[in-house]
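Model: Ready when you are.
Researcher: Fold this.
Model:
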Amino acid sequence: MRRTVQFRAAERAPQEERQPEPLRTEFGFELPRGYVDESGTVHRTGVMRLATARDELVPLRDDRVRENSAYLSVVLISRVVTRIGTVDDIHPGVIEDLFASDLAFLQDFYRRINAEGHTRAAVTCPSCQEEFAVDLAGGRLGES
């Protein structure tokens, strides 16, 4: 004897009501030191978008990258950073003028949002050894 199981709409509703989170494509950040523009203004906050396959392929054709492979990260970061402070014309020259610690921060930030999909990092307090997560996207002190 075959039995047919029928589900009532009320039994399916919780499953159907769950909607996936929308894809987040832009991430705010705060540079450790900041970009200093020509007028001496320091810009610390910015936005980086997710990279596309094109963002990773186009720099490989750049003559500067062909001459010096270390320049790849400068070109790549300049393609995905959409704004630093009030500066929204981000090009390799802007990234070249960053302090080394800010470039290292952006390289790590790029890796986190594109490979890992988030901006959180696990850290351990050096005093009490408590483990917790911080959001590398920035924000005010004490917020995570």
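Researcher: Now this one.
Model:
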Amino acid sequence: MSSRLIGVGVGPGDPELVTVKGVHALRAADVVVVPVMDTGERGRAEATVLHYVPEEKVVRVVFALNERTDRARREAAWDAAGERVARLLRDAGSVAFATIGDPNVYSTFTYLAQTIAELVPGTVVETVPGITAMQDLAARSGAVLTEGTEPLTLVPVTAGAAVLKDALAGPGTVVAYKFGRRSGEVAEALRETGRLQDAVWGSALGLPEESIRPAADLDGAPLPYLSTLIAPARRDGSRGGKL
């Protein structure tokens, strides 16, 4: 039988936001892999998974999760992680990879799946969708993501503040991921485009250290790396105005 690698989205951190299908996939797999940084601390994916599967079923695999400057180090980490998961697939047959958010939205799972396709040909790759941080922040803050014909743009601020500013100049809602280290640039972009007033940011959603604040409070101080921003579309307040 073919090996199976299943990317399971476990949401932004609140264990109650893992889908029923996600829980079933985690429990049905022979092994559940969770990504960790080389510093070794427990990440959100691992903490969430441990609410649903026993610790002895979980395998921690090191990824260079935040490495953007040293390409050689990043590639070496991906290769080592791929080799580790390939061995698990050969031995266990069914491996679930738990990723925060959704496995098809800025997820390490994408790179792992590409590596496994080369190392273990014939492996069946599947994904189970997860709730994203922008959905969770919208629910917790009351920010409406889209109405009627409004577009929705998702921007990783690791791509640069100019990309965010271009998106904010458009007509729809803009969501920014991974902006914590560049919060000052984000605040400036919001002010310059007139999008500061209704914008909101959040971090550690669903966790004890959760913080949800108006973007107007941004003062340039560093925030958690995985902070999320929602800048709602410009609206006139009328019901169905964007239909």
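Researcher: Key takeaway?
Model: The helical segments are 20-28, 44-49, 71-92, 109-119, 133-141, 161-168, 183-192.
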